[in-house]
UniProtKB/TrEMBL annotation:
<comment type="similarity">
    <text>Belongs to the HAD-like hydrolase superfamily. S-2-haloalkanoic acid dehalogenase family.</text>
</comment>
<keyword id="KW-0378">Hydrolase</keyword>
<dbReference type="InterPro" id="IPR023214">
    <property type="entry name" value="HAD_sf"/>
</dbReference>
<dbReference type="GO" id="GO:0019120">
    <property type="term" value="F:hydrolase activity, acting on acid halide bonds, in C-halide compounds"/>
</dbReference>
<dbReference type="Pfam" id="PF00702">
    <property type="entry name" value="Hydrolase"/>
</dbReference>
<protein>
    <submittedName>
        <fullName>Haloacid dehalogenase</fullName>
    </submittedName>
</protein>
<dbReference type="InterPro" id="IPR051540">
    <property type="entry name" value="S-2-haloacid_dehalogenase"/>
</dbReference>
<dbReference type="InterPro" id="IPR036412">
    <property type="entry name" value="HAD-like_sf"/>
</dbReference>
<dbReference type="InterPro" id="IPR006439">
    <property type="entry name" value="HAD-SF_hydro_IA"/>
</dbReference>
<dbReference type="GO" id="GO:0016791">
    <property type="term" value="F:phosphatase activity"/>
</dbReference>
<dbReference type="InterPro" id="IPR023198">
    <property type="entry name" value="PGP-like_dom2"/>
</dbReference>
<dbReference type="InterPro" id="IPR006328">
    <property type="entry name" value="2-HAD"/>
</dbReference>
Length: 245
């Protein structure tokens, strides 16, 4: 197998724990306004709207903003107009909504992410390949201490993952062939799309991302699966890269 010279990372859910980060800010906001709600459900519905919208745009079956901040705000306003969440929407003015919308810039890393990335960086290029917009990814890196060599946002490529252009354009900018690039993600759909463009694939299951039954089904090719590696942490990922030196 050719050496892996660059690792490209999905970010939301793979590198950062978006769920607990968003829920914590929602809980704080609720306390400030004397409100209660199922904050976990609200966060998931907000996330689901993003996943649905980016997928439809990537497939070319719908139009919409290619800037995720704008997309998140549109979805947030829509949620707050629904009957279930209207009691929140009536109390949250535009300034409050704008601040909350930027919670996606302030997501915390999974416990193993920063140390694992720092170790991996000694052996290979590490970069994002995320649907998040450029400013979001920069702010998140500063907030969470993520030591990226560079940031690739699909905003730069006028599409979203899993459109093939997202993967091919990132590799083009790195001047590397697919066999020297690995996609790292906690989502099998992302890895299958990367594999279709010739990239190596690394699956890192994360709590609350792919369904538990799907996580159990994903196996490495050595075990008859459809990804190259299944690893439990970024520490193992750094070990993989070190072994290829």
């Amino acid at each position: 197998m050719a050496p892996i010279k660059a690792f490209l990372f999905d970010v939301f859910g793979t590198v950062v724990d978006w769920r607990s980060s968003v829920v914590a800010e929602l809980e704080t906001l609720g306390k400030e306004h004397g409100q209660s709600a199922d904050w976990g459900k609200f966060a998931q519905e907000w996330r689901n709207g993003y996943l649905k919208t980016t997928r439809l745009i990537a497939e070319g079956t719908a139009a919409g903003p290619l800037n995720v901040d704008a997309m998140h705000k549109k979805i947030l306003d829509s949620l707050l107009s629904e009957q279930e969440w209207a009691h929140l929407g009536s109390a949250w003015d535009e300034k409050t909504r704008q601040h909350l919308n930027l919670v996606w810039h302030r997501l915390n890393a999974w416990p193993d992410s920063v140390e694992g990335l720092q170790a991996l960086k000694k052996h290979a290029i590490i970069a994002t390949l995320s649907n998040g917009n450029v400013r979001l990814l920069i702010d998140m890196a500063k907030h969470a201490g993520l030591p990226w060599d560079t940031i690739f946002s699909t905003e730069l490529f006028n599409t979203f993952k899993p459109n093939p252009r997202a993967y091919t354009e990132a590799m083009r900018h790195l001047s590397l062939p697919p066999e020297n690039c690995a996609m790292v993600a906690a989502h099998i759909y992302d890895l299958r799309a990367a594999a279709s463009q010739g990239m190596l694939t690394v699956y890192v299951p994360r709590l609350g991302e792919d369904a538990p039954e799907l996580q159990k089904e994903v196996k490495a090719k050595a075990d008859g699966g459809d990804v190259d590696y299944v690893l439990s942490s970024f520490a193992e990922l750094a070990g993989l890269a070190a072994g290829g030196d």
